[in-house]
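Many introductory courses stop at the sequence. We go one step further.
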Amino acid sequence: MRSSNPVFSRRGFSRDNGHAGFNAAPQAGGPAVGTNPYATNPYATNPYAPQQGAGHGAGPQAPARTDVMTIDDVVTRTAMTLGTVILTAVLSWVLLPVDEANIGKSYGIAIGAALVALVLSLIQSFKRRPTPALILAYAAFEGVFLGVISSAVSTYIAPGVVIQAVMGTMAVFAGVLFAYKMRWIRVTRRFYGFVMAAAMGFLLLMVANMLFSVFGGGDGLGFRSGGLGIIFGIVGIVLGACFLALDFKQVEDGVAYGAPREESWLAAFGLTLTLVWIYLEMLRLLSILQGND
């Protein structure tokens, strides 16, 4: 199963990375094989995976692996990654003020940090295996960018909106997780195709708006303010929620089919990217709503 998350969309967890002994059947509690198109073993192509149905005399079975990814691994790595984002965001808020005397310097550092975070995320996305140092470095630079931007929005546009955006992001995460666990959200091929098409359309419109803003001045096509800004802010948050559902499915499959433990870093990275997306869209939407009061 591939998710819309740029980390997960390139491949499933390390299905072909040479790890021996992936389980041919899901672990207890995992999705049952054959219940839907995405429930087949994503590691079945591994030549070292033990075969199902092997009877007496079929040869020795590969020993069960103990270094497989668990939900606890994913939670721990995600907490470390998000904790790094939050820590550097708080530090940048305090150490890089956006007052009249320092706003140029702070903005410059924030833009530079955002570019570094983008490069690091792209490097990790195209690596065959997760690199914890690279992921944590991305989180640190992303936090610097978020801290300065959040401080600027809170100071000049909508005081108090940052706490609201954080709470809103947490609510979206909890809501999607609950709905996914209750199976109110079912990740199917149709769901995946719809989310990908909607995401491509959303990004193309945002790029067009940016180009019109740069070359035409003003607010471009108006997607970042007013009524259209509110609509597109809601769409952006809904897309982020859909990304979370796809990411949860990816993690569930990785745990069920015995992905190696190191892949929990990849899960943490992908979930962090999605949560940053939701937070930024939430921050923009709430800023527009408060500005219209």
